[in-house]
Amino acid sequence: MKLGPLLFIANTVCCAQAATIIPTTSFSSYAALESYWNYLYPWGSDHNGSARMRGSPKDHTNVVVASNTLTLMATPTSNASPPTSTSDPHPAIRYSSGAIHAKHQVNVTRDHSYTISGDFSASTTKGTWPAFWQYVNGWPPESDIGEWKGTNDNWFNTFNTSSAVKSDLVAWPSDLSFHSLKAVLTAQPNNVDVKFDYYMDNTLRATHTGSGFVGKPMWLIINLQMEGSSGSPGPSGATLYRIRNLEITRTGS
């Protein structure tokens, strides 16, 4: 008579419910893209590099969806208006490019952990600065699942403050082949900090702690910035950044 209740309790504890927040089909069409993603950065078109982001339901010049793949394309421009970025440190705008951000904000709590994954083909050429990252309004905190700064490395970064930063660099090929990246975000036992497990090609490559990240909604951004931290001059032609099989799942009650 005791086994039945015990088995019921064990199954209830061990089997947390998993919900798909963004499915792997979100890049299957522009309608699907616009169901789960917004164009540009959460704050607008400019950031800390020389590319100004473009994109809207009527403008797919720099944000292209085809064959279940998102392609962000940066192209040189000579007639930007205004000619300098509206974001600090206000570099000259020399490219048009693309960015999207998820409509759902990642919010790790005691009850909710997240897994964020996808396959990426990212340029490592000097002057190209693709990224796949999260940030909290007011910055920091920040978590970089993918960041390429003009060298053959992917940077796994966690910013607790602007100066308290942990970075792990993992070699990344320069042949534009697709490789998988994944981040698993879980609340630490203190229910204050978040544990970030960063994977490349299904191998754990880094574990970081986000101090005080619990309960702080984070925007998830995919963007192709140029120059800035990746050096200059950037390419004289088009740069492509491709993403497929992107998925966000949330586990918890």
TrEMBL record:
Q: Which domain of life is it from?
A: Eukaryota
The protein's name is Endo-beta-1,3-galactanase
Protein source organism:
Pluteus cervinus
